[in-house]
Design brief:
Jelly Rolls; 5-stranded antiparallel beta sheet; single chain; 2 domains; globular; mainly beta; 6-stranded antiparallel beta sheet
Length: 190
């Protein structure tokens, strides 16, 4: 089963640290900013600063616009996102500061509760067809250009900047054809 979430259904909410706003694309049923299992969002980062504390959560951050950002975690590890669709994976409880490389950026965030959910985030720059891997939930987002969903039941074109949500994806059931894609696989821990 699949659902297409269009941009008019995305919600704009304040950052947890109050220093900006995020566009929430999807969150688990009943989830709130203070208590959720998984959450997908986008944010514009317009100045250097500290990231919100999400202790107990895992963060995956994808560069989707701009010339890049350095993420320094706990005054130690640095993730550098220079290119479109570069991904950083880090502990949400780290003291993380973002330093812009050359002007503002936009990022795509996947934040998951470490105890309740595991996540895999993949990005694909070039046009290709890929089989969707097995997962409890799979989300696909295209930065530019429509992409095609093909299943044994039908084919459907999904517009760019719309979020596709697949429930209980099984290997070989669904293929996706497109470019500049972010694919998120969520497996709920039981």
């Amino acid at each position: 089963m699949f659902t297409v979430i269009s941009p008019e259904h995305f919600k704009t909410i304040p950052w947890k640290n109050g220093q900006g706003e995020t566009i929430e694309l999807a969150i688990n049923d009943g989830g709130t900013l203070a208590d959720f299992i998984w959450r997908l969002s986008m944010a514009n980062v317009v100045e250097d600063g500290f990231f919100s504390d999400f202790s107990g959560y895992q963060r995956n951050l994808v560069l989707i616009a701009g010339k890049g950002i350095n993420l320094q975690h706990d005054d130690n590890k640095i993730d550098t996102l220079h290119h479109l669709l570069d991904v950083a994976n880090f502990d949400g409880g780290c003291r993380t500061i973002g330093n812009l490389l050359d002007g503002e950026i936009t990022d795509f965030n996947v934040i998951t509760d470490k105890e309740k959910c595991s996540v895999v985030v993949e990005t694909f720059k070039e046009q290709q067809t890929l089989e969707v891997n097995p997962a409890d939930l799979c989300f696909i987002y295209s930065l530019s250009g429509a992409f095609q969903l093909t299943s044994y039941q039908n084919q459907q074109i999904i517009k760019a900047k719309h979020l596709l949500k697949l429930s209980a994806a099984k290997a070989g059931d669904v293929t996706i054809t497109g470019q500049k894609l972010i694919v998120v696989y969520l497996t709920l821990n039981t």
